[in-house]
Design goal:
It is built from 14 helices and 24 strands. The protein is of the alpha/beta class. Bound molecules: uridine-diphosphate-N-acetylglucosamine (UD1).
């Protein structure tokens, strides 16, 4: 079993390029099956979730290979429309294949995604949108079976701006007959990136980034090439690390507008942050201050995916910071682990109260989920002494060689058996 061994209290210095976004590349890999030719995806991070998505493509009869930072997918010979349980389980967001498989083959059979570390992950909004587009859906023995001899564009309203449901609807609507208007759509940057990919396939999709998305169903082009946007959650994680370690780092290949709420919060905590068009510099010195309540919300609100890392930063701030997690029911599992390092955190339902301490102390801890694991790295960089983080498979789902990236900035971190 591998662990990350971190000796804390090192300042970070220097410049680092942020890799492509996991939450962008996964739906785009699913979307690539709409094309019956070759998709070249650039800036594709090396993550276990990307490997899992590529495995699903292989099962479906598509061919995919990695060349450096690019993944090349050929979907010409797609021959199946099912995803078995073991592949579904490997990647929580595999439900994103549903709309694409249905659109391409008229039928999709997926095992139910079930719950995850963050609590139940229902798919009712996905299914009701696909029904409105004309799919017949049944649930048999833990499987979702969708059939549609013809998908028809329509006007549909999501009852919550779910990211996954918005993406599934866009993918199904891309090959439907006629136009679809999705209202109360999610506005996340990754939706905009999916729109750009679909545009490169010749699909007329507009409005991503707003709550209303228009999709004009069409026959798509067979080939496309796309560069995945940079990962705003990874950028935010490194900013949290720089803030807590009183450091001075530059991040390159970022889109600062995509994580403006995180930047604003870190500035309120006392960090100096200068943003350029595709880079930023964050400087932190002196003790951070507690800030007004941090409430997670759909984009452009504060991202649920950065709540754990900012909580790790707040453990060192003077005063009490209140967090309110509004997106997921069970997203405080990292709290117990942060407490092992000496953090002072109380939780009650969706609320967590973090009272800053002057020091954390290294200890053995476990990554409970992807971003919870990232929070432990942030806390360990601040802690006095050595922290060993286990259960790294969670972290490897979303961070491409995080230890090397942090080492290049001067952190004392190694992966050891
Ligand atoms: C969520 C985040 C997204 C993040 C991703 C990865 C939000 C709004 N979404 O997207 O930014 O990148 O996790 O961690 O912050 N829900 C239903 N029924 C459905 C679909 C969703 O009840 O059919 C509920 C979920 O249980 C959850 C909420 O809606 O409480 C958000 O879900 P959704 O946006 O779909 O989650 P993800 O797509 O996973």
């Amino acid at each position: 079993m591998s662990v990350l061994r971190i000796n804390g209290e090192r300042e970070l210095r220097g410049s680092m390029r942020v890799h492509g976004a996991k939450n962008s590349v996964l739906p785009i890999i699913a979307a690539s099956i709409l094309a019956s030719g070759e998709t070249v995806l650039h800036n594709c991070p090396n993550l276990s979730d990307v490997d899992a998505a590529v495995k699903i493509l292989g099962h479906l009869g598509c061919v995919a290979r990695r060349e450096g930072e690019s993944v090349i997918i050929n979907s010409a010979k797609m021959s199946r429309c099912d995803i078995p349980h073991d592949l579904m389980r490997e990647m929580r967001s595999s439900v994103i294949f549903l709309g694409a498989i249905l659109a391409r083959t008229g039928e999709a059979k997926l095992s139910m995604p079930g719950g995850c570390e963050l609590g139940p992950r229902p798919v009712d909004i996905h299914l009701s949108a696909l029904r409105e587009l004309g799919a017949e859906i049944s649930e048999e023995g833990g499987n979702i079976i969708c059939r549609a001899s013809k998908l028809r564009g329509c006007r549909l309203n999501l009852n919550f701006p779910s990211v996954g449901a918005t993406e599934n609807t866009m993918l199904a609507a891309a090959l439907a007959e006629g136009s679809t208007i999705i209202t109360n759509a999610a506005r996340e940057p990754e939706i905009w990136d999916l729109q750009r990919y679909l545009n490169s396939l010749g699909v007329d999709v507009r409005g991503a980034g707003t709550s209303t998305i228009f999709v004009e169903g069409t026959r798509v082009k067979s080939d496309a090439s796309h560069r995945v946007i940079s990962d705003r959650i990874v950028a935010s994680t490194f900013m949290a690390a720089a803030a807590v370690t009183r450091s001075d780092i530059e991040l390159t290949d970022v889109i600062p507008a995509h994580f403006a709420t995180v930047t604003k919060t870190l500035r309120e905590m006392g960090c100096r942050i200068e943003t350029g068009s595709d880079n930023l510099r964050i400087r932190s010195n002196g003790r951070l201050k507690a800030v007004r309540p941090i409430m997670t919300e759909p984009y452009p609100g504060f991202p649920t995916d950065v709540q754990p890392q900012l909580m790790a930063t707040a453990t060192s701030a003077e005063g009490t910071t209140v967090f309110v997690e509004n997106i997921f029911d069970n997203r405080y599992r990292h709290v117990e682990e942060l407490r092992r390092l000496g953090a002072d955190i109380e939780t009650a339902g969706r609320v967590a109260m973090v009272t800053g301490v002057k020091k954390l102390h290294g200890a053995p801890v476990k990554a409970t989920d992807l971003r919870g694991g990232a929070a432990l790295i942030v806390a360990a960089l601040f802690a006095e002494g050595t922290t060993e983080i286990s259960e790294l498979s969670h972290i490897d789902r979303g961070y491409d060689n995080i230890e090397q990236a942090l080492r290049s900035l001067g952190a004392d971190i190694v992966r050891a058996d």
